[in-house]
Fold each of these.
Amino acid sequence: MVLSIYHVRLVQFFCDDAYISFRYAQNLAEGNGPVYNPGERVEGYTNFLWVVLLSAGLRAGASAEAASLVLGIVLLAITMILTWHTARRSLNGDPAWSCLPLFFLATLGPVVLWSVCGLETILFTAAGVAAFLTYHRSGGTTRGLFLAGTLYGVAYLSRPEGAIFGAVAGIHLILSSLVRKEPLGRLLRRGLALAAGFFIVFAPHLLWRISYYGDWLPNTFYVKTGSEERALLGLRYLRSFLEAYPAVSPLALLGLLLGISRPAYRDGRSIIAHSGLLLAVMFAYTGSVGGDYMALFRFHAPLLPFLALLMAVGLHGVTSMLSGLLRGNRIVPVVAAIVMACGLGAWFMEVSVASAAGEVRSNVVVPLKGMKINGIRWAAAGKVLGERLWPDAVLATSAAGAIPYYSGLPTIDQSGLNDRHTAKVEWDPWIPGKPGHAKTAKKSYILGRRPDVIIAHPKIWTQESIHRTDSPWPGYLLRTIPISGLQDEKGEDLWLYFWLRRDHSARARELGINPPEHIRTSF
């Protein structure tokens, strides 16, 4: 518990993408429906259940940040409890060894970070582990499998990958039935029960999505599948994860091999094999979609309870074999296991410490420090814009989270996540090597919509760090606003630079929005 608290304090921040969900939740709480801009029905999120829960928190009087943080911490605790119960079924009911996966989860950055950053990752993780455990506790009864399928549906409402978790459970059900040579009729009844539980959740949501948004898939799907380098990026993402945590894969693979081959794990063999199957399928899936760019491997966080379980089985198996070699001596193997576990935990924690310090170790994922800085600066910029601009001013920006959320202004999302035209109709290439950043709105499209302010990717600088700029936006003027109370690491004041529509220059001057005097420009 102490280790988890320390780890949370080290990595906690609110990711800019979380503010997209916050904005949908806010509009839902205010009666505008789950929309990014009131009156525009675009599904720019993939976490329906998380948005609904945040909206409930907002209705209860909490801020979106507070609601997400409380939910994240509670769900992290629930995930650990569920993982402990799953481990007990795999490690012959030994309560001490069943705590080892929890220790690994407390030291692995992906689980801890993505529980307390405002996103839905931990909700999906908790739902996935709950469904997995329910499946294995069902005893093969149709009632139990129906409940497991329903929980896989809940996982799907948290993240679309919940459908993959459920499909893997179906594959496991078929394979285990074939191994046991069960009658085909019994397999069909059990399979239909599992599928029915899932579809009783999945089908109503799909019908609602089609009727409300007019699409079969979220708008984000069309943006994030726009890169032709997805497979290559996905392979680099997996390799980067394995390089960051080099002890994870060999120890987990050892646990999988021991778990399915040694008689000592007969009772937990089904869980161990299912975990290995799920990991193989999900690693293939995250690779096929190109992975992610965010710090500490967000896409792999939901897989860590299963990796931690296999690692615990691996260490337990090594200890058991060592005890046999020492003719029943248990003290030396247990002490060796404790030393190894502590060493692994320290090794895992070091990755989080380095990322929080801004150390670049991979060209695939960014360090946590940079994401924290952006989150703080963009939130401050959004607050300033909300205070200075008129209430119906329209923004255009590729930073679609904190700036629109805090400004409260109508926003054109230049990255296309919340803009159907850019996602599906026409776009310009943006950053092909960065997952989720393959598309950006065409300049002609943005100019045609005539936003009042164009921010694009936020430019937040000190007066000394920029000396000249040229206008890439015909009909717009360069303007700047000081961000009160925000400074860089040297203590210099920071300013937000943006482009203001020319016909608003007099109105903006009355609001204290002026040209940057320290930049030589004719615009």
Amino acid sequence: MVEAIGGVGLWNVNTSAGYRSEINGITANYIGKVLIKLPEGDAQTRRVTELLPKGLNVRVVDGETGVPFPNEPITFSASGPSVGQLSLTNTITDLNGFATTYFTLGSAVGTYHVTATCPGCAAGLKTVEFTAKAVDKELTCVNCRFSGSPGQPLNNPFELKVIDKLTGELVPNIPVIYNVISFMDRNNNTSSNLHGAGPSPYETITEPSGLSHYSLTLGSEEGTYIVRARCETCLSGQEQIARGTAKAYNITTEAEGNAGGDPGGDCGSGCCPITPVLRMKMVTLPNDRVSFTSAGNENLIGLNATVLPVCLNDSVNVIWQVGDDPGDYIDSGTPVQPAPGPASSFRVENFPNDPTKGLPAATAGRPLPLAYKVTAHIIRNGVMTKVEAKAQQDEIDKCRQEYIDFGIPLTDVSRSRFTVGVGIDPEMVKYKDCFAHIYPSRAQEARDLVAKFSGVKVTSGYRSPRRNWDIYKDRDPTAKAVKTSWHMFGRAVDLDFLPHSAKNWEDLWKAAGKPKILEANQGVPMIGVKADGTEWTAERYVNYLLKDIHDLGYCLHLGE
């Protein structure tokens, strides 16, 4: 046996191999004390100046045996975009080798680093690092570029929103101040002469929807007017830039009164002998200006077009037509047609009892987003001019439409509850039939149980209404869970434990939090614990012994 004595390091030993022979180069490597980072405190995200909810835990152990070292000195240091605060910078490990500090984020947004150092640990194993992210409210543009006529108000206001970057929710009652700060002419020369553009400064307060609007009157000169929007309480006084461009439409009329190829002879006094230009200015969608559903407060789609030159506005009318988009291979229905005029609107509605109008009923959800083809046209002197646009649901509202189709209230599934393809745990989202997923609230608990019991696996996390229907339609399509399952609201996770045995299910049952249900095959509830701690047993199992119920275990449902 070769033993390294005297501390950490590499020891080269020569030992005899018999008469006049020798074995060279045997290496003994004693690791010694090592510093270990406990991962649950790493990569936390909170708002600026907030205390991280989880402690930053390290442990000193023997690198070979895992035996903990108490009374070992540990130092903590922090760095980041601004000054943060540690609850402890110098401490010693406890009887089990643990040392903990808590970190309060600084006042600036960004990534912070906390380094733990063990001076007495082995070289290369003395330090570990934790990271933490500080977020805040963020001001972002929704619609920040518009064009109009010099000296006139823009037809549409600039629109910005304030988002809580921790929760993803839009934030109301936040001041946003607008200033017109410069003017850029058509040759890209910038000056401080604003040519009467304004109002400036102008203060708004975000609406209950979290949106802020600013109506800009353009200056008298052609060019681009630069507007700075500032949120003093967002991201250390964050700013966004909006641009309003003034363009004059210069029309040259020929001596005979015929211009631009417009048919006809002598125009006469006061007429406008110009071939019209029709422009689709905007199709306004109600949900974050990017999408819609057929729910009553989310289904009004605004339409806006303009006719140039302006002298034609009183002599021609804009006619609208809205129909199902033929390119998406799904029947999106035929809405009630918009009224004529440069500004109009239509609603996307469900008429489940009248399939001849409105949105066709979809008892199993819709495989594609709802999409409509929007056409605006004008007729002058017998000549039609038309333009087309498209109004389509995004991936989030395509998924939320399933809740409406199945008659499930949208109160728990606002757009802010969804994340599109970001931060999704594959084990929590087994089926990806809905591309926008609500992240399960009990995901971390499920991960902990999977880590604790080697035979446990996740079988179902979030389920869209259509996926939930697919599960129940062959069992009992009238089951209450078709419309109430917590899986559809990101509040339930199902676990399996192989091999199925009374002992396995008993251990898992005791380790799981509440509320919870132990189910038999085909999702039949047997026993449960409500959120308030009340225990219950399904009627058909009231005379069973608990060990017999555990023996029938097939699925542990974390949720109600």
Amino acid sequence: MPSHSPIQPLGWAHPLQKREPASGFASRLAALNGVDLPTLMVDMAIPQADVFCGTEAAARDIAALGGLGAADTDELVRYTPLRLSANGSTRVTTEHLDRGTVSRAFIRYCPHCIREDIETFKGPEAARPWQRTEWLIENIRSCRTHNVWLVRAAASRGRSAAPDFAATISLAALPNLDTLLRDAVASPPSAFEDWIVARLDGTREPSNGLDDMPLRVGIDFCEALGVSSLHPPRAGVGKLSVIEWARAAEEGFGFASGGENGIEKLLSRLVEQQNMTRGQMGLFDTYGYVVRRLQRTKGDPDYQKPRSVLRRHALEAIPLAPGTDVLGEILDRRRLHTIHTASLEAGVNVRAIRTLLVRKGLYTADEAADLTNHRIKLSVEEFEREIRRLGDAVNAETVMQITGIPRKHLTSLVSLEFLPSLTDSNNIERAKHRFARDDVDALMERLFNGAEPVTSPTSRQMTIQRARLSALATLDDLLRWVHDGTLRWKGRLGNELRYENLLVNADEITSLVRSNREITGIHYDSVDQFIPGLRRTSAISLARQGAFETVEEFGSRSRRAVSALTPESVQAFQERYITLVELCRVGGFAPKRGVNRMRAAGVDPAFSYETTLVMIYPRAAALGAVLTGPRKS
């Protein structure tokens, strides 16, 4: 029959089913009319190559053979995979699928669907089962109706001819259908496969982060992401089974459907897993197969979104070296350092960097202990701010040498934060400080600020060391007055800004000491006036245990430093604790009886008697036991 001649409907035809492709519909027509598919196509002058490729003209001719109406004809054309000759890809409905995604050499089917089709339709048994378009898509591996894995059979077809679905089923499935039904392997429900079918049907969900990608990209990305999640970076994907691929696709879909946040959640987990390993961190060793897969798409604009998400995460989470190819973009500068790279670039010992990062609060001590030098990361900004200057820093011995500042005075200047320590150790006793030369020079400029040149100092114009002894001033107070500009007069011997050349007026220092402040704290000898039964030795012991806050103050009359307890800490102690002496006064009983009553009531001392030499109890519990217990008549 000439191809241009009108095609007359065949005498026997089944109605078109949902998502039935043209080749499958033609195969049923052939079986229903007693011939195979190639014979029917030759007899009807429909080119077999067109049926194989799924051209619209061939699909419409097949629809005419089956006597389909206009609506069913359009539906048949819509769900017939059209092979695009340009790149070997396939179009199904409005979606494009990559080459190899649509199976043409094999027929896949569900035994339960075949059984239901046989029971539903009439005519020759081979003509009753019908092919579903979703069975043609390799990434759909299970039957969404019966939740079993699809069975695979080699397609019965001639050279350049479309697979004959009916002939294949009659040979591969019908003779042993009962066995196939019994041996069908159950599969879990698949949101990934449901999503593919929904996209073919033209359904998109705004909340699904994959629905703004082309379908082929979403399918590929979900599987690659799932493989990275479930398998080691160097796992051979060629050895994965159908079920393993299905699990990977479902895993990847679970993250990718959540949009960029969901994808980044998985990527962050992969980085955390890599943090527990040793050696340098790289893209592939961290993210696995998904990197290898996306590297192949660098020239494909459709993959821009997944590449951008992974690239951005990698730049923020992995210390990549400049010049690294990050999914098609060359890294122009380093974004992250590790302790190892920071040490090499700044010339600083790795242990010093570790200590500094912990002191800065960038890592806890436990975190740092669990991570290798290649896994402790800091941004380039943090490196420039915290580490870079350490390479040119000087230690305390060098500072004392170039400035003449005695060690004790340097320690005070550091603790007062007049000279910042690059190792963030100003308040750490016996720490190994390192200082920037600029900070040292700035300190000396501030100390000598306003100093008048002196050639012959008077007897009361002294160095800081001598003035402190003469005026009985505390070193911290004296350094504050010199540094903050409190002093009305400062002098300088010679031109060098060395500490021994800085002069102050001892009389001015004495005046400041006497007028600075009186004792406002509570002395150890008088603490029992506030807390009955608490003597000097007990108060000293409690202060050492942190129960009291202490201050060092100078008395204008005694002109010596004395240690005292702050009134606030004494008041807080009174509100929280009670001594046995005060407790016995409240209860009106002897000390031994008070101890026995506390023991009977289960009230334990708040402090060890061996260290305090006095029995001290929690006030609320002790008073409660006294007020509710029996009293002596």
